[in-house]
Amino acid sequence: MSKIQAGMAIKLEVEREAEFGYFIGDGMESILLPNSEIQSDSQISIGDKVKVFVYLDKTGRLTATTKIPEVRFDSYGWAEVVSVKKEMGVFVNIGLSKDILVSVDDLPNLRHLWPKVGDALYISLKSDRHERLLGKLASEDVMQETSVEAPLKGIRNDSVKGNVYRLLMVGSFFISQEGYRCFIHETERVEEPRLGELVEGRVIDRKEDGTLNVSLLPFKQDKMEEDAAVIYKYLLNRGGAMPYGDKTLPEDVKFHFGLSKGSFKRALGKLMKEDKVYQEDGWTYSSNRK
C-alpha cells in the first residue's frame, strides 16, 4: 500500500517527464509534479530523488510541489488569512497554490471575534477523513514551547506587538514579534481583539515565568487628554453650555460621553485647571462665554 499522503514532505523519484510536468513516485504510486510547482532554480532529471510537499489540488488529486511550506503536520508557522467563508471558516495562505481551511469548528463562537483578511494564525496541518488538509490552531503548550522569556529588567512600559492566538473570558493572549508570550487582561482593553488580530500595547508587568502582562489602554495622562477633548468638543457643539458637571449621574455621563464618572470628573477638572471651562448651578460653560 502506498505511503504517499497529503501533508507529507517526502523524497520521491522522478519516473518520467510529461508535457505539463513530471511524474514522481515511491515505486508503488505516482503523482504529478506540475511545471508550475517546480522552483526556478531546480534542475530535474529522470531518476533523481526530489523532496516535495504533497497536497490535494482543487480537483482532489494528489499533487506535488518543490515549494516546501513551513506549515506542515509536524511544523507550525504563521499563515495569513486570505478569505472568510461564513459557513466554513477562514482560508489561510501557507505558500501553496491552494489555500488551507481553518474550520468554523475551531474558531470562536462569536463571529465578530473571527479573524479578518490580513490577520495571521499560528497553525500546523491536520487532515480530515477524506485526506483534505486543514489548518490546526496551535495549543497553549505549543505556544509555550515556541515563546522565549522576556528580559528581567528594562522592559516595563516598552511597546510590544503581535498576533492574538488565544481568547478567554478573562483576557487575550498573543506572541510578540520578539517571541514573548503576552497576556491582556479584560480590564486592560477597550474591546476584545479578534483571533489572529495584530495588536500593540505596553508592558505593565513581567511575571516570574518570563511572560508579560500587557495593556492596550493609553497612559492615564494620555487618556485624560483624550477625554478632555471629547468633553470640550461636545461643549462647543452646544454653543459653550451643557447641563452636565461634577454632580451628573454616572449613567448620564456614560450615555452622553461614553466615559466613567471618574474619568469624566478628572477630564473636567483638567479643563477647569486650564481655564477652558467653569461650572455654575450644575451647568458647565466654556470660559469664552464670560
What can you see in these coordinates?
The protein is about 15% helix and about 35% strand. It has about 290 residues and is an alpha+beta fold. It folds into four domains: about 10-65, OB fold (Dihydrolipoamide Acetyltransferase, E2P), CATH 2.40.50; about 75-140, Beta Barrel (OB fold (Dihydrolipoamide Acetyltransferase, E2P)), CATH 2.40.50.140; about 150-215, Nucleic acid-binding proteins (OB fold (Dihydrolipoamide Acetyltransferase, E2P), Beta Barrel), CATH 2.40.50.140; about 220-290, Orthogonal Bundle (Arc Repressor Mutant, subunit A). Helix 2 crosses helix 4 (about 260-275). The mean pLDDT is about 90. Pfam families: CvfB_1st, CvfB_2nd, S1_2, WHD_CvfB. Belongs to the CvfB family. InterPro entries: CvfB_fam, CvfB_S1_2nd, CvfB_S1_3rd, CvfB_S1_st, CvfB_WH, NA-bd_OB-fold, WH-like_DNA-bd_sf. This is S1 motif domain-containing protein.
Question: What's the gist of this structure?
Answer:
It is built from four helices and 18 strands.
What's the number of extended β-strand segments? 18
Name of the CATH architecture of the largest domain = Orthogonal Bundle
The shape, in one word, is elongated
Portion in helices = 10-25%
- The count of domains is 4
Strand arrangement in the largest pleated sheet: 3-2-1-4-5
Q: Which stretches are low in confidence, meaning pLDDT under 50 for 5 or more residues running?
A: none
User: Under CATH, the topology of the largest domain is which?
Assistant: Arc Repressor Mutant, subunit A
